[in-house]
Design brief:
Elements (H helix, E strand, L loop, with lengths): L2 H11 L7 H6 L2 H42 L12 H20 L9 H38 L8 H26 L3 H33 L8 H9 L2 H26 L2 H7 L4 H24 L1 H25 L8 E10 L4 E9 L6 E9 L5 E13 L6 E12 L5 E11 L6 H5 L10 H10 L5 H16 L3 H13 L6 H28 L5 H24 L7 H12 L3
Antiparallel strand pairs: 1-2, 2-3, 3-4, 4-5, 5-6
Length: 578
């Protein structure tokens, strides 16, 4: 059967479904509904990049003043580079072109070919703008870290950092590429994709809204009396985590809904009658599932774990502010990731007690108590400081302490106390990374942070490193649950009778619940060093994907899916003696 004959059979069979005949005859419903969305997206991108450019200009303009103010205490190696300012200016220009082109998209049927080309062109300019705004500055920071200019004195992993840069760049470039692929798809494939993307977009936005409303109900009281901008920032930083959390369940429900609706209107049977196999019908959904996994991996690689850590740090700080307000103490807006940490430098006989640990290790730490022992393990010097920060770009790099009390002990252990507003120390070997890296929570670290920690502490016991190794593998495993769930939802969504629709939904819910139960159990085993980290992170995906492939095998051969009752009865029958 030729392709043209198949299309004629398909169109004749679905002519009974008056609800979808308009889409099938012109194939441009996505354009008719999307011309407003592309305008809003491009204008939103332009406004966001303009705000970023304004902030970058403020940072660059304040650079000379900062150097002048610090010249008495530290010889800085360089002022802020002009490269981010130039690249973000170019990004705004590209975004402006994309916004102007988007207003030429009319959504009219007579101009659908031109509109498709304009949408793809807008997305290419938008992707170039995103790369220009982000990539040069990030590369400069990464190269600085690799050349020994890391803000916290860390030794970064080259593979992890460039992996992050490459992955995010790939996602940005893939957006116009996927648009080009969509507009070149055949009639049937585009129809399947459209039926999936509509409920998928609604599901993702709905789940994100539910998460925000639920979180606002639980934690809204913590921000009473706080600036509205702080509450806005609190939820903006959680977007990467919410996207990674909502996408898998949205993929599952959207696949069930789209294929269930197509099955109910006999469109799947029509496509099979047109000569397509079940696997070929579902192929566009498998590609969408793989693409969703790649996008989630880009978020999970660094941003999603960091957003969870920043959320917890902001909540803890808000609660401390409430306590300070009730007791009449001074309220600070600093974000502290943790309170109370000790670091022992055995080589230099120096011990650090840090009262308040910053979320970003290169930021200021507070409430420090540092004591130096002599060769006889007797107190030699003690420093008590309200604040401390490490000036990484001074020559040489140095610690700067504020509001310091310095105790120097004589041979009779009698201290001589000196109070100073500022104290600089240039000959200490500690950096913020050495002092505070062990305080980090593995669930708040992405691949760059986890890799740095594992490389720096490879001599630790396996039990200590097990949570970090398990989370390292889990960063890669969690996004691919989207692909595993699309393999499940596709065969469960296809039904050949009205009675089978609810069975597919019930089966999908059960599989999803078991997946989360299995994932939590295996991750706990891996983090406690009772299971290999790789299998603790990936076994759930393997089990769900295998289940989906088995169900797909039944659907591809036009066989009814096995029910739990039949499986149990079959097991018992097989055990009966002959």
């Amino acid at each position: 059967m030729s392709q043209s004959t198949s299309h004629r059979i398909f169109q004749a069979l679905v002519a009974m479904n008056q609800r979808n005949i308009r889409f099938l005859t012109n194939g441009v419903l996505a354009l008719q509904q999307g011309h407003v969305s592309i305008k809003v997206a491009m204008v939103g991108l332009l406004v966001s990049l303009a705000m970023l450019l304004w902030n970058t200009w403020g940072t660059y303009e304040a650079g000379p003043r900062l150097v002048a103010s610090m010249s008495a205490t530290a010889e800085l190696k360089e002022i802020p580079s002009i490269a981010p300012l130039v690249s973000r200016g170019i990004a705004c220009f590209l975004a402006l072109i994309a916004a102007i082109l988007s207003f030429w998209v009319t959504g009219a049927e007579a101009k659908r070919s031109r509109d498709a080309s304009l949408i793809v062109t807008c997305l290419w300019f938008a992707a170039a703008a995103g790369l220009a705004a982000w990539l040069p500055a990030d590369i400069a920071q990464t190269m600085g870290a690799l050349s020994g200019k890391a803000l916290a004195g860390e030794t970064p992993s080259i593979a992890a950092y460039f992996g992050m840069l490459g992955l995010i760049s790939l996602v940005l470039i893939s957006i116009p590429v996927m648009a080009m692929v969509y507009f070149r798809l055949g009639l049937m494939d585009r129809y399947v994709v459209h039926n999936f993307l509509s409920p998928f977009s609604f599901s993702v936005l709905s789940f994100i809204s539910i998460i925000i409303i639920g979180d606002l109900t639980d934690n809204g009281g913590e921000f009473s009396g706080q600036p509205l901008s702080l509450l806005f920032t609190f939820y903006i930083v959680q977007i990467p985590f919410m996207v990674v959390f909502a996408t898998p369940i949205a993929v599952l429900l959207s696949g069930l809904f789209a294929l269930g609706k197509m099955s109910k209107s006999n469109e799947v049977i029509s496509m099979i009658g047109a000569g397509r196999s079940v696997v070929r019908i579902l192929m566009p959904l498998f590609v969408v599932g793989a693409y969703a996994s790649m996008v989630c991996l880009a978020f999970k690689f660094q941003w999603a774990p960091a957003s969870v850590g920043y959320k917890d740090a902001m909540l803890m700080t808000a609660r401390q502010d409430i306590k300070a307000k009730r007791s009449g103490d001074r309220i600070t807006r600093d974000i502290w990731a943790k309170r109370g940490w000790m670091h022992v430098n055995e080589a230099d006989r120096r011990t650090w007690f840090v009262g308040k640990i910053p979320y970003t290790l290169s930021d200021e730490m507070a409430d420090l108590f540092i004591f130096q022992m002599d060769e006889d393990d007797q107190p030699d010097q003690v420093w008590i400081a309200e604040r401390a920060h490490w000036v990484w770009n001074a020559d040489p790099s140095r610690w700067v302490f504020e509001k310091v009390r310095h105790f120097v002990y004589d041979e009779n252990q009698v201290p001589r106390i000196t109070a100073m507003d500022t104290l600089e120390i240039t000959d200490w070997s500690e950096t913020p990374w050495k002092v505070l890296s062990s305080s980090q929570n593995p669930e708040y670290l992405g691949i760059p942070g986890l890799t740095m920690y594992l490389n720096a502490n490879r001599d630790f016991e396996d039990r200590t490193l097990a949570p970090f190794r398990t989370n390292w593998w889990y960063v890669f495993a969690e996004p691919w649950s989207c692909m595993a769930l699309i393999l499940v939802s596709a065969p469960l969504g296809i039904v050949y009778s009205r009675r089978g629709s609810m069975a597919g939904v019930t089966g999908a819910i059960v599989i999803f619940a078991l997946m989360y139960l299995m994932r939590g159990t295996l991750l706990a085993l891996g983090q406690s060093n009772r299971m290999m980290p790789f299998f603790a992170a990936w076994s759930t995906n393997f089990a769900v994907a295998a289940t989906g492939l088995i169900l797909l095998w039944f659907r591809a051969r036009n066989r009814e899916l096995p029910t739990l009752k039949k499986l149990i009865s079959g097991m018992f029958r097989s055990k009966r003696p002959a």
